[in-house]
């Protein structure tokens, strides 16, 4: 019954969230991939003094093309959850700092961001459909009827394979580092071994004489 309702419904492939737009300043850029920190001005009311004080809020904002630099005045849009900590996305650049906006990678428009979300959703549905998830199969059929391009299995699992390979490589590096630290205490120089045995080299004997 639920699958039939999904199949016959006219709702979009991805859910559209209620959003709001605010203006802020980029205070940190280049430290995270495709993400920046933006400070938005705000005020807080003090009950005792009955006065408003400055109380800015800092948000982690998605920057899909790494278009922003520190000092940019930007317009950000809420309601775009990209991860556990990112719920805002860059809407436009109000006043660039340093190099002009035309010399940087373009900021994605609302339509481009929607197309990117649909593409990521379909990639996830292809992976879920291979495991037998019926809702994903119905959504793929609905997307196909609406004219969306359905990704292949190779495209759907390409990023997953890359992530698994990187994780295995990092695990091997950490294991190798631990083994090296354990072996570091066992390695002794020839000079230390001679001192333990009480033997001296010809140069050390000459110095004593």
Shape: flat
CATH superfamily of the largest domain: Nucleic acid-binding proteins
Query: What is the β-strand count?
Result: 7
End-to-end CA span: 100 Å
Mean of residue pLDDT?
82
Q: At the first level of CATH, what is the class of the largest domain?
A: Mainly Beta
Number of structural units classed as domains? 2
Structural class: alpha+beta
CATH architecture of the largest domain: Beta Barrel
CATH topology description of the largest domain:
OB fold (Dihydrolipoamide Acetyltransferase, E2P)
Largest beta-sheet details: 5 strands, mixed, barrel
The percent range for strand residues is 15-25%
Radius of gyration (Å): 29 Å
Number of helices: 6
What does this entry look like structurally?
One of its GO terms (biological process) is translation. One of its GO terms (molecular function) is structural constituent of ribosome. The chain has 209 residues and is of the alpha+beta class. The chain has 2 domains: 21-107, Nucleic acid-binding proteins (OB fold (Dihydrolipoamide Acetyltransferase, E2P), Beta Barrel), CATH 2.40.50.140; 109-185, no CATH class. 42% of the residues lie in helices and 22% in strands. It is built from 6 helices and 7 strands; from the N terminus they run αβββββββααααα. It has a 5-stranded mixed beta barrel. Strand 3 (43-46) and strand 4 form a beta hairpin. Helix 2 (110-130) packs across helix 3 and helix 2 (110-130) crosses helix 4 (153-184). The longest helix has 32 residues, at 153-184. The protein starts with a helix and ends with a helix.
